[in-house]
Amino acid sequence: MSQSEQPSSVKGKPTIFHEGYIYTVERTTKTKSIFRCKNRDCKARCYTNLSMDALLLLPTSHCHAPQPDSVPAIQLKNEIKAHAAITDGSTSTIIHSALRTYPLSDAGQHPKNEPLMLMIQRQRTTETVDADGRLPDKLRKTYRDEGFILHEDKKLIIFTKKTNLTILKQNKHWFADGTFKVCPDDYYQLFTLHAMMTNAITPLVYGLLIGKSAEDYNLFFEKVFKQDNFQPDSNMTDFETGTIKSVKDLLPNILHKGCLIHFSQTAFRLNVKQLIALAFAPLDQIITGFDLICDQFDDDADDLLEHFEKTCIDEPKISGNGHDEDSSKPRYQDEESLLSKIGLAYYSTGQLIRPNSTGSIFKKYGS
Length: 367
Hints:
Layout: E1 2-3, E2 8-10, E3 13-18, E4 21-28, E5 33-37, E6 45-48, E7 54-57, H1 71-86, H2 91-99, H3 113-123, E8 149-152, E9 156-159, H4 162-170, E10 173-179, E11 189-197, E12 200-209, H5 214-225, E13 234-237, H6 241-250, E14 255-258, H7 260-277, H8 286-294, H9 302-313, H10 335-342, E15 345-346, E16 352-353, H11 360-365
Parallel strand pairs: 10-13, 13-14
Antiparallel strand pairs: 1-7, 2-3, 3-4, 4-5, 5-6, 6-7, 8-9, 9-12, 10-11, 11-12, 15-16
Helix pairs in contact: 1-2, 1-3, 5-6
């Protein structure tokens, strides 16, 4: 009875290695386990005992060469999976620890770090809610065994502790922000309240909200305000309409400030959208519209405006903030190329046209 190398796992299936070939389990009977070649174009099979540590019959012939250098990569992935399932270490720590024993001779088959990091994240067990829809005990307390749930229902979950609320009360200047990218699927955004601590703005209260309306923010602030008599002097937020309205309604006597960075981003996005909207302007008004939009940008956007004008308007500004003296003369004589370069046209048919090639608009809809 031949020995097989210690069984492992690929995508959850038991796997064995023998003479450079990799086999995954196909099925198990009462007396043996049947494995097939990992290469699905190959019909080779082998049979082991139920403990999968010995071959009952030699494998049938393969239609390809063995791949012994693939074995260390699979073993590396299995080691990382096992480590990720039982530890709370960072992904980089787990990967670096496993790579210490990876043979240099097989470096060519070494998996890239990005797939390994995703594999670790998938391997980590997901904490589920209990039968009543409540978070598990592990997520209800801090590592110092302090309560961390201020409020919990299907519309809102607020995470904080008493110490954080004390610090928040002592600070007269608050900061609030929301992020939509890092948030569980059941909620819409993670909204946070911050205050200044040791010369750093630190998040103190975390809220999972189901939306971004004023009602959503009102519910968040009302639950927080019930905990103590908070009297901040100012609150800085982004330019979400719901946030602004909620702060004005619930904190009417404080100074509300908007974040300059968020304001710049918002203004820049709006102005860029206006540039795109030039595609829907009448041809004889595109130049005038472009000039009006340019006046709304600051100097940092000069490179963008120059690129847009050169690419889509086709005649750069001559100097300063002025153009040719004869401003009534179109800077772009070829109507067909102008619309094709912009890429969108709302022509007399009232249809939105997305040309696939230069000149396709006027070939199809031109007069």
